[in-house]
Amino acid sequence: MPSRAVDWALFVLLAVDAALLALLELFFLPLRLDGLILPELGDAPLPVSALVAAVTTPLLVLLAASLGNRRLGIVPLAVWILTLLVVGVQGPGGDMVLLVDWRGLVLLAAGALPAALVLGGTLGKRAQDAGKVG
Fold first, then answer.
1. DSSP result, the chain
2. What is the pLDDT of residue 47?
C-alpha cells in the first residue's frame, strides 16, 4: 500500500506544479525585448512563457496519466486552465493579469492544445489496450 500513497502524493504534487506553472507563465507573459530583462530588440513582445507552457503542461498530463488511472491525467490540465483563468481575470487585488491581446490567446493555446492531445493519446491507448484484452 505505500506505493499507492506515494502515487497519490505525486499526483497532488503534479496538480500543485500545474497551478504554480500557470502562475509563473501568466506573470511572465508581458515580457518584452526592451533591454530590462531580455535584450533590447525594438521593444517587441516575446511570450517566452507560452513556450514553457507548451512543454510543461503536456508533460504534467503525461506524468499524471502514468500514475495509475489514465483518466486522472485531465487534473493537471484542468488545474492549469482554472488557475490561468481565475488568477488572470480576478488577479491579485482584483487586477486583470491575463493580457487581452494575442499573447493571452497564445499562452492558452500553447498550454491547453498540446496537453489535450497528450491526454487524448493516453485515453486512446487505454481504449486500445482494453480492446486487445477483450
1. -HHHHHHHHHHHHHHHHHHHHHHHHHHTTT-EEESSSSPEEEEEE--HHHHHHHHHHHHHHHHHHTTS-GGGGHHHHHHHHHHHHHHHHS-GGG---S-SSHHHHHHHHHHHHHHHHHHHHHHHHHHHHHHHH-
2. 85
Cα separation of 28 and 32, whole Å? 10
One-letter amino acid for residue 61 of the chain = V
Total number of domains in the chain: 1
The model's pTM is: 0.85
Domain that holds residue 104: 2-133
